[in-house]
Automatic annotation (TrEMBL):
It comes from the Eukaryota. One of its GO terms (cellular component) is mitochondrial matrix. Coiled coil: none annotated. One of its GO terms (molecular function) is malonyl-CoA decarboxylase activity. The gene is Mlycd. This is DCMC protein. PANTHER family: MALONYL-COA DECARBOXYLASE, MITOCHONDRIAL, PTHR28641. Residues 1-58 form the Malonyl-CoA decarboxylase C-terminal domain. GO terms for biological process: acetyl-CoA biosynthetic process; fatty acid biosynthetic process; malonyl-CoA catabolic process.
Length: 95
């Protein structure tokens, strides 16, 4: 879960999220809301993402601001839950 959070939040290509689905939702002003363990247990889901899925939440009053922040300064909006997983990864990682 921590590695998944880091991959989605911290791994970048030219300053933007490396994952194309994350990049799509973040460009549209979403918040990286929750990572769900074993949410997709289909063979494709296990192969593509170890069964994990991510919820992106859209707060309509914030989408324009979030989109502008992401496109302008590559700032990713994420919930405390996701940020906690990112922090745990950073503390324990040897990367």
């Amino acid at each position: 879960m921590r590695l998944c959070a880091w991959y989605l939040y911290g791994e970048k290509h030219r300053g933007y999220a490396l994952n194309p689905v994350a990049n799509f939702h973040l460009q549209n002003g979403s918040v990286m809301w929750r990572i769900n363990w074993m949410a997709d247990t289909s063979p494709r889901g296990i192969g593509a993402s170890c069964g994990m899925m991510v919820n992106y939440r859209y707060f309509l009053e914030d989408t324009a601001r979030n989109s502008a922040a992401y496109l302008g300064t590559q700032q990713i909006q994420a919930s405390e839950e996701v940020l906690s997983l990112v922090s745990q990864f950073q503390q324990n990682s040897k990367l």
